[in-house]
Queue: 2 jobs
Job 1
Amino acid sequence: MEKLIQTLERINWDFSDYSSVKFPLDINSIPWYPATFPSLIPKFLIALLSGKGSVVLDPFGGKGTVAVEALKQGRKFVYNDLNPFAADIARNIMGTLLGSFEDGEQITKIIRSDREMLEKDKLRQCEDDEYVGKDETVINQLYEQDFWNRLDRNGINRDVVYWYHKDTLREMLAIYDAITGGEKDFSYHVRKFAFAAILKGVSSQRGHFTYVTDNCLPETIRYYNASAAYCSMLERVDGAVKEFRKQFSAVNFGGNLHHLIGESVIHCGDARGLDWLGDESVDLVITSPPYLCAQDYVKTMRLINLFFPEENLQDIISKEIGARFMRRKKSETVVQNFYDDLDRVIGELWRVLKEDGYFCLIIGQGKGKITDGYDTVQAVVDIAVEKHGFDKVFQTVRRISYKMVRIGGVDNEEIFVFHKRKREGKG
Ligand SMILES: C[S@@+](CC[C@H](N)C(=O)[O-])C[C@H]1O[C@@H](n2cnc3c(N)ncnc32)[C@H](O)[C@@H]1O
């Protein structure tokens, strides 16, 4: 244990030179998702705290950072998140990886055919016979009707017109047709993965993503080239998958990705009730819960919900732990609810973790009035140690870069490693 702690202490956990811009080929840097941690954090923790073939759980899985790092190092993962859009990202990543391991050229083929399809779609729009020889008003009317029909037929929310220029939208609809036109196979996952990743970039909302969260519509609608953004995103996905394959093969020497993913789990549900997971069934937990009142995760995914709507969102939102929309309520109640929620989660983690296993917690104090006078991080640590019996074996502060401070609303976060000691008298 002493040696392990010394190694943990030698690592600089800031990873301040890590960003999705600098590491575009890290597959986890591709999805658009708030408050995620750099993949280097789970990478080191998995390497140091678990062995090959073990099971790594993240009950607040987000875009699947822990799951991907677990696979890279030959571990199985158990992914959980309440947010259906987050679980969908994780499924798309896994579907993309699986397909490309079968045939390394598959994404290249999709890029080629989608590029051709988008080119043709542009021509078809210009040459459509129906519009030839008609005056401008009629053309506009036809276009409008055709356009609305297309949205309605696909169940796409008409509000898309407030976020995207009409010509951007026409390109997006062609991509949407390619995604939904076939089976839910490899190409579905690749295309949806790339499509979801460009949604904010091609929208007319140029502000911070919390503008999307809070439904602040763009003041001016401008055209952005969705076809080009999508094709270059596909190229990036292709590069990232190739990079993943290289890393996977280097570590796993002929290991079987199918087998590992087949024995792993993607679950969409509430971390306060992990009853679908058996007692002492996981070897390591690595997780970062929501920081109090820092984000509204489901609402942040507003744009993808316009195209691929999920049901019961109000119910799901009401189960979000520490949601930002609670920040105007009474501090005392909000803070106490947060502690009660994390108490339930940590209780579940104790139950599902094997003895001698580790639980790594990455957590920060949400900024803002609501947390004034409270040390929410220390309170959660006390719950883990005093109430549930974990031993705290490591703790460090991680400074977050300036850019991240603006994004997450926190200055720094802490990493804790807890140990579930073997019961007395056991082997
Ligand atoms: C800080 S983020 C985790 C990000 C993740 N570490 C990553 O790198 O992608 C916290 C996650 O907790 C999820 N969450 C919020 N309330 C939850 C609940 N009751 N049960 C499960 N997940 C929840 C959010 O949807 C969000 O994805």
Note: Residues 33, 35-37, 60, 62-63, 65, 81-83, 86, 270-272, 288-290, 297, 319-321 surround S-adenosylmethionine (CB under 6 Å).
Job 2
Amino acid sequence: MESLRAAIERFDPRVPIERAWTPPSVWYVDPRMADVERQAVFQRSWQPVARVAQLQEVGSYRSGCLAGEPWLVIRGEDGVLRAFHNVCLHKGRELLTGAGTARELVCGYHAWRYASDGRLRSAPGIAGIEDFDRRALSLAPMRLECWGPWVFICGDPEAEGLAGSIPELDAALQASGWHTLRFVARKSWEVACNWKVVVDNYLDGGYHVPHMHPSLAAQIDMRSYRTECYSRSSIQTAQGRKDAGDGLDFDPEERVGAGAIYGWIYPNFMVNRYGRCLDANHVIPLDHQRCRVEYEFYFEPGAADEGFAAASIEQADVTQREDIEICESVQRGLGSSAYDRGRYAPRVEQGEHHFHRLLAQALRALDSSVPPSPS
Ligand code: FES
Ligand SMILES: [Fe+2]
């Protein structure tokens, strides 16, 4: 069996798209790769975990586990929103589950108490203990940044700030008036594929749209499809079709508006702005061959009442089901003994190549901790 390090190095991020081969299929089918990505990709990148609106009240918290890393976010008594690794420093129990409101964090195992700013307040029953440094037992902080309607966290203290690393997408969304939109609904789908298959599919520059999404293709002028790649993001844009209409029960110009913006933030978050709506997609790895895709839908005030929102969510559902079918089929194909690597369509799949480059850089940076021989 090929070593993981060799498999990582088989994709060279310096090779231009015209000559490049896609990453080998082992990146998508090997459980060891998921462990490496957890460290190299997910612990070092910004991940959305909540909406700011869910954490307005003092003491409101949310918690979860993303790519094996338990996290919690809480608004402290001083009004400051903070993120921590959700783990008690006594024996490692997760401190919080789910969402709620708490003035302090009390571990359910042996009742160690932490203030909402992470300081250890008390540890009952430790009489006789020596060299007990309370400050060294504060909760381990994570980075937190609010961007748009979301709270993002990041486990890497050295990481560049989120908004500062995606100025182009930030500006495009500001210009689209996204701050006026309201949260309407949330949906999620479990997909039997590696998380990267979903991201690859999203970033193929519309290549699959005419073949797999007839109802979406009817709304978009595919000749106008463009991809721009930036340091930690890319933006795909497309204009609404002016010549459509026949056979559609909605106005494509109303749905697509002046143009659609499909923004991707490394590694697994997408923000799609079109017409009167915005949807956000978060692709969460569950294991090496399963992921969950979480959608949130936002609309202009009034769109929900008019039934426009329901119709739009229904359209997204149709598109998503078509994408799930593709992605699950690709995952089975990636496991085929007859497939190893593919090629890129250079004028179309730049976003996908850009993603693979960023991923390869992150994986190579962690190279020394990757086992050189097969396990
Ligand atoms: S693990 Fe939290 S108090 Fe023991
Ligand atoms: Fe698609």
Note: The chain has a mean pLDDT of 93.
